[in-house]
Design goal:
By secondary structure, the chain is mostly loops. 0% of the residues lie in helices and 0% in strands.
């Protein structure tokens, strides 16, 4: 958008490559968000709603996703090394080529 004064609004972030390291996003509603290539390393996403969220190529190392809603979440090529998904709803979640070394999934 460009106003009459010629000043442009800053474009909204789509999450591509954004950095959210060690953030407390517990119980956050991120449903249908596009967070491809985002860095959520060490973040707390406990009980967050990430259903239908796109996390392709995202870094979620050591993230806490316990009891989160991950229905049809796209983790394709994401790094979930040492992440905790205990109690998460993974119905229809996509993990194609994701790094799951040390990930807790129950």
């Amino acid at each position: 958008f460009q106003a009459e004064d010629g000043i442009r609004d800053q474009p909204r972030s789509r999450g591509l490559g954004d950095v959210y390291k060690r953030q407390n996003l517990s119980r956050a509603n991120l449903k249908s968000a596009v967070l491809s290539q985002a860095s959520l390393v060490g973040s707390n996403l406990e009980q967050a709603d990430l259903s239908l969220t796109v996390l392709r190529n995202a870094s979620l190392n050591n993230a806490n996703l316990t009891n989160s809603i991950l229905v049809r979440t796209n983790f394709r090529n994401a790094n979930l090394k040492d992440a905790d998904l205990d109690g998460a709803d993974l119905t229809g979640a996509i993990f194609d080529n994701a790094i799951l070394e040390g990930t807790i999934i129950y």
